[in-house]
Amino acid sequence: MRLFKHEKNLKDEIKFDPETQYAVIRSSICTGEKTAGFKNKKDGHFVEVMVIISSEDERRFKEIYGLDSVRTEY
Q1: Which of 14, 28, 59, 69 is deepest in the core (most CB within 10 A)?
Q2: pLDDT tens, N- to C-terminus, the chain (74 residues)
């Protein structure tokens, strides 16, 4: 996998704590725009990590953070 320059330190800049957060792709019902990030399990606060334009973007998001799957919310 080839990471873009801005992605190399993404995992250090935006931390993921599976104890308090879960990975999610938020998808707009109206526009179809997709954003990957992490949602707080307790209060629902969403931290945006990256815009998902293609399946390649989703694959990179999973690989950067070591995720097997990511749920989608509308």
Answers
A1: 14
A2: 555 555 667 777 888 999 999 999 999 999 999 999 999 999 999 999 999 999 999 999 999 999 999 999 99
pTM score: 0.84
Positive or negative, the CA dihedral 28, 73, 20, 1 is: negative
Q: Rounded to 5 degrees, what are φ and ψ at 34? A: -120, 135
CA neighbours closer than 13 Å in the CB half-sphere of residue 21: 18
15, 49, 50, 65 from 10: Cα distances, Å? 8, 8, 10, 9
